[in-house]
Each structure stands twice: as structure tokens, then as C-alpha cells.
Amino acid sequence: MNDAAPQDSVDLWKATIAEAEEKRSTEPSAMDVMHSQIKTGQTLKELSTTIITKDWLGILAAPDDGGTTDWLLEGLNIEDEQ
């Protein structure tokens, strides 16, 4: 990311990280700047609930015996464990 970003942004990131590192022993919340600020959409719990609800209501795109839901949830669980 540093190679693709403008230099002033990289400088700001480095200064913010240095400040957070300096304050972390007395103010642990200073490290919160390390958390991603990007909203990624639904949480795993919300996504699982949506899939199960749609399957239960029969709203899936194609008829299914329930195997698709199990398969999708198993994949999500594997990804979450990684």
C-alpha cells in the first residue's frame, strides 16, 4: 500500500503509528488506530442468519434440499477459523 499511496499519506500513517506505539503502555486505546476503518458489509453472524432465513422461507434462487445452506455455512465456518 505504501508504494501505491501518495507520500504525504504514507508520512501521516507512519506518524500516527509512531504516536500510537509511544502511547500504548499508558493508553492502550491509542492502538485503536490500527483497526480497519473499512466497513466490509455483513458480519458472519448476519450472513449466516440471512442464508438460513432465506432457505427456511424457500426464497433461494433454486430449489434445494438444504444441502446448499449446510455447504455455504461450512465454508463460512472454515474461512472464519482461518
Search tags:
elongated, 82 residues, 2 domains, mainly alpha, 0% strand
Percentage of helical residues? Answer: 55-70%
**Terminal Cα separation, in Å?**
23 Å
Strand residues, percent: under 5%
- What is the global morphology? elongated
Order of helices and strands: HHH
Q: Domain count, please report it.
A: 2
Structural class: mainly alpha
The gyration radius over C-alpha positions equals 21 Å
Pick out the low-confidence regions. none
Count of DSSP H/I helices: 3
**Number of distinct beta strands:** 0
- Oligomeric state of the chains present here: single chain
**Strand count, sense and closure of the main sheet?**
none
Mean pLDDT: 80
What report would you give on this structure?
With 82 residues, the chain is an all-alpha fold. The chain folds into two domains: 1-38; 44-81, no CATH class. Helix content is 56%, strand content 0%. The protein is built from three helices and no strands. The chain has helices spanning 7-23, 44-57, 67-81.
